[in-house]
Amino acid sequence: MALNQQQKEAWHRAAALCSRAEKCSGDIRKKLQDWGLEMDETTEIIHLLIEEKYIDDERFARSFVKDKFRFNRWGRVKISFQLRAKQVDAGIIEAALEEIDEAAYQEQLLDLLREKNKYVKAATDYDRKAKLIRFAQGRGFEPDFIFPAVDHLLRES
Fold it and tell me: CA–CA separation, 30 vs 59, rounded Å?
């Protein structure tokens, strides 16, 4: 593939971006378009970056899932939503989410709920339960995990 001068400059800038931090093809595509490149030029540069291993959506998704779960303490729903917003393929998202350890996932949810429960002001147990459920949903956890965890927490206290 023969790149014109503008494409070469964009390729170097994009490669430098990818070298500093893990990026997905959707992020880079948006950057290239912001820099004024046409769609076919953007696609060409993306293919080159993938060939040169600067971009790997699977590697990005695994890293994103691990970071958002560990540091931001997000659930699968929120992580999946963010990856879809970055135009990562659904199959890649599914595979990356499967790497989350089930026991660690449930423990993280319980820890978050215990922490939140200390600061929840509620007149009734029903109100407390509703606030904890909304909090966990906002963090991106699934109802199948939230309801048992909240029930367990309220039995504890």
Answer: 19
Q: Extract the tokens encoding 55.
A: 């971009």
- Residue 45's pLDDT is 93
Tell me the C-alpha distance between 37 and 119, whole Å. 50
User: Nearest Cα to 132, choosing from 80, 148, 77?
Assistant: 148
Using CA of residue 53, residue 54, residue 55, residue 59, what is the dihedral sign?
Answer: positive
**What's the Rg (C-alpha) of the chain?**
21
Which residue type, as a one-letter code, is found at position 141?
F
Asked if residue 84 lies in contact with residue 90, where contact means CB atoms within 8 angstroms, the answer is yes
* For the chain, domain boundaries: 5-55, 58-97, 102-156
Q: What are 30-58's pLDDT values in tens digits?
A: 999 999 999 999 999 999 999 999 999 99
Q: How far apart are CA 26 and CA 30, in angstroms?
A: 6
Q: What is the pTM of this model?
A: 0.91
Structure tokens that stand for 56 in this block: 């790997």
Could you give the dihedral angle defined by the CA atoms of residues 71, 72, 78 and 82, in that order, rounded to the nearest 10 degrees?
A: -80
- Sequence-distant (≥ 6) Cβ neighbours of residue 108 within 8 angstroms: 69, 73
Architecture of domain 5-55: Orthogonal Bundle (1.10)
